[in-house]
Amino acid sequence: FFLNMFPKKERGELELIFLSGRLSISLRMKLLSIIFLNVCIGNVNGKRNVLVGTPELEALRGTSYPPESIADDELPETMSWRAVPGVGSLLTAAQNQHVPVYCGGCFLFGAYHCLADRVKITRFLMARSGEYDAWKAPDAIPAHQTYLNCGGPQFGGCVTGGSAPGVWEWTRQFGGIPLSGCQPYQAVDGLGCQPKNICRNCMPAAGQAWTERGEHACWAVPGNSSSRHACDGDDHCAAAPYPRISVGEYGALPTAQDVGPEAAAKAIQREIFRAGPVTCNVDATALVDYDGSYVVEDPQGDRNAFDTDHVIEIVGWGTDNQGRPYWELRNSWGEYWADAGFGKIFRGRNDMLVESGCYWVHPSGWGIPETSKWQHHNDPSAYDRAAFLLFSKEDDSNESSASDGDDEKKYNINIFVHRNKQEDAFLTRAGNTAVAAIFLIASATIIILYVVRR
User: Fold this and answer.
1) 56-70, 162-176, 200-214, 346-360: the lowest-pLDDT one
2) Strand, coil or helix: 308
3) CA-to-CA distance for 17 and 8, rounded, in angstroms?
4) What residue ranges carry the coiled-coil annotation (predicted)?
5) What's the maximum distance between 2 C-alpha atoms anywhere in the chain?
6) Prior bond to 76 cis, omega within 30?
7) How many whole angstroms separate alpha carbon 13 and alpha carbon 370?
8) Candidate CATH numbers 1.10.10.10, 3.90.70.10, 3.30.465.10, 1.20.1070.10; the one for domain 37-177+247-386
9) Is 32 exposed, middle or buried (0-12, 13-18, 19+ CB in 10 A)?
10) Could you report the per-residue pLDDT of 255-293, keeping only the tens digit for each?
11) What pLDDT sits at residue 450?
């Protein structure tokens, strides 16, 4: 049944693997799951852009879902990285996959929106905690065209579609994605991965008028030389390091099919609250004519997890004035779409299949590698509970005395407060554990001394 879902060529190759009898049933199912995780349709016009066979995903890098360090009752009723109380947006600028020409690159834009936003959030938290950030430039935005030039058919493109985990795996293997100043987005595949298609500069040659444009006036950026003539006539001298973002780990979140839509939604909330936005696969039919003024309701019905045709970024959640829980999504169709490029989907019911396939990524560094301008960020759990400093519930007493009588929970900014209510509870638990450990050690010591003296 599963093999019949693939095109004829891929089905024949898979039959050799899965029906050979040389793999255990559990390993066959694991490999199938890896393949299915790469399915993303890049269009909403009925075109089936299925990416099959990205073996380097390594079972989603072999990583597991991040530790559940946040309890469900600690999650705020409303939060958005688009609107942090007292701060504003901690998201990077919106990117549009549809211009200068249409490109079915939803998976690419969702993946890099998520990666860039997590870098920005981490840099903000570092600054607020007084940590040094080696990269002094403003927001780091990936060069989408470099991926299209170099990702190739193996990881997907405008025509074939792809997956967010596939983009992150390619980025990891490639040593990072150059920043947007390296390569303008052209929305086309197949330009080739020559050095000047990775990171380039363009200037007229000596004696050439600036109006004389063409490939002859562009060259690869060497990265370690200020001379604009360093690469003239030589396509093989693009020397790293150029500015980039690197990928450390990534993984999948529990799905509605595995744990039910409500439990999947809670897992997605915890991850967004823990470290930043995530990407999710959806059936985008209901988004085509969406104006952003309401919560989209599009129940799952008889659709399955493989009926998705688009990738979006989830940046937060809330409840509207009619009591409907929603996800706040960011699309990649321009700021003129919906609410400045954002919208809302009903949460916790697998509407639009939104809880059927969501993924997280950890940026492991940004800046210029092997220089003083490279910022390492190797620990995925470094800021696991940092969101409590940004979105913390006020004391119950303050809520009960609110003059407006609104029973919606209020949130305040506690960037400089290092011991809010949740942290106190955490520290109390840690203290109790330490006391118990000391008691056990002391008891064991007394028993040992008693036995020795006997």
Assistant:
1) 56-70
2) coil
3) 15
4) none
5) 99
6) no
7) 42
8) 3.90.70.10
9) middle
10) 999 999 999 999 999 999 999 999 999 999 999 999 999
11) 58
